[in-house]
Amino acid sequence: MGAVKTKRMPRAVREQQMLDAAVHIFGQRGYIAASMDDIAELAGVSKPLVYLYLNSKDDLFTACIRREARALFDAVRAGVRREVPADRRLWDGLLAFFTHTAQHPDGWSVLHVQARTHGELFAAEVRAVRADIVAFVTQLIAEAARDAHRDPGLPEPEVAGLAEALVGAAESLADWANRSPHVTARQATATLMNFAWSGLGELLAGRRWSPPQD
């Protein structure tokens, strides 16, 4: 009898295995300490094959950033239902964000820690997808303003500033939640909604805090 032939794994599947392994190693050990040997071993392939598919450590790290960034943005966008009220849309988006970052802590570490601290090229990749998320949140807040008023109730620069503040708060809260084993995604979402939406709701109702006149 002849030898049994095994089916060759498709390149795309093999590459995803390599990226899975790389995200775990980069997320756990950091970019500097991560080695291509360890990534290849975890992926179950040879180191030359990793280089053949992904060229270099820098290219591999960039591919990890792009994949994890796109997965995060897609999760947030998919979590929002357009047919529900504005506060529920924001809740759904935040819940999708915190659920994804909790379920993919290594990917979040790659995006929020490693990519931002190991060179401008990597940081630029993160800024690009963060800009997409901020734009999406800006749209949600603008829609909330239109829901509350027949005309836009908030000027465009204020909407943009609120979106930046909300995304920044969500990023910090995700770090805290991932370090706190008893904090669930729903609890993190409720914390931010209580902090942000209550104030935003007042703003949409036309009630603003006025700074003191010096």
Briefly characterize the structure.
This protein is mainly α. It has helices at residues 11-29, 36-43, 47-54, 57-79, 86-103, 105-117, 120-148, 156-179, 185-204. It contains nine helices and no strands.
Description of the molecule:
The chain is built from nine helices and no strands. It is elongated and about 60 Å long. It has helices spanning 11-29, 36-43, 47-54, 57-79, 86-103, 105-117, 120-148, 156-179, 185-204. The protein has a domain at 65-204: Tetracycline Repressor, domain 2 (Orthogonal Bundle), CATH 1.10.357.10. With 214 residues, the protein is mostly helical. Helix 1 packs across helix 2, helix 4 packs parallel to helix 7 (120-148) and helix 6 crosses helix 7. Mean pLDDT is 85; it is low at 1-6.
Order of helices and strands: HHHHHHHHH
Overall form:
elongated
Count of DSSP E strands?
0
Q: Which CATH first-tier class of the domain at 65-204 would you pick?
A: Mainly Alpha
| Number of helical segments with 4 or more residues | 9
What's the pLDDT, averaged over the residues?
Answer: 85
N-C termini distance: 94 Å
CATH architecture of the domain at 65-204: Orthogonal Bundle
- The percentage of residues in β strands lies in under 5%
| CATH-derived topology of the domain at 65-204 | Tetracycline Repressor, domain 2
Largest pleated sheet: none
- What's the CATH H-level superfamily name of the domain at 65-204? Tetracycline Repressor, domain 2
Cα Rg: 21 Å
